[in-house]
Structure of Major intrinsic protein:
Amino acid sequence: MEEGGMNTLPASSSPATAPHTQEDRPLSGAAHPDHPLHWTLYGCEMVATATLMICGVISVAVLTAPQGAVGAFLAPHPIIQIALCGLFFGLSGTVAAMTPFGRVSGAHVNPSVSLAFALSGKLGWVDLCGYVIAQMVGACLGTWLLAYAAVLFPSWGHLVTTAGYAATVPAPHVSIMWPLMTELVLTALLILMLYGLAGHPRFKELTPWAGGLFFLLLNPVSAWLSGNSSNLARSFAPALFSGQWTSFWIYAIGPFVGASLSVLAIRMRLFGHLEVEEARLVNFGHHGRVPSLFHPMRRHAERQEAKIQGKEG
């Protein structure tokens, strides 16, 4: 239509007023440019990591402190004792994943896992920083709660301090390269296992349960070298509260290098086709979107359908 010799276009066709149609899918590496930060994810990841530490440190203290009944019973059987420590610390990750908070954030609860997702293009670098900070803060928060409980309940305090808050310390009688390589290889194997499960349509629901079996089997073989951490946040918080910082740097370098090498191997398809759809280890099917904290299991399609029905009503 012409008016005064000029063409007039509908407002909706103007580029300046065209609505943004891009969805916010931070856990698929496609965050909306207008929303680079995802505080719900970071907060939930913090609580999930705190849950990991609370359950994990309690289990190690109960299983290893010699003044406790369980620790005294297992003391003559160190291989069984260290295997059970791996099992229960791994299952602590399962507990964290099954909380509403873990279901929202995807329950990485480990900077190495978040780094692997970022290197795979499933997590933006801004969100990677948010996740790692949340994991470090959450690990310290969970361990602090146990330290506070130690003040209130001296018997518990004796157990947890004897266990060193489940601190991971390299073996003193071997070259530091052995604990470093242990952390590197352990983390690489962990990432490969998680990708193998999370990327398989038939086995993905087993992903949050796999950590217990993984550490149950590997702890007796290699925990004496490095403590089998594979998790900077998990090692940092106990070191902070126990003061055991011996060669702590291996728990940053080893796991991060291991995670990076595992992603490189995945991209080169050295172990077949291993690919995940989104950066989560639990509650799959959201296609990278952030679930509701109050209804974390409800899929996006279900919410959209409910909105449509509400409008029609």
About this structure: The mean pLDDT is 90.
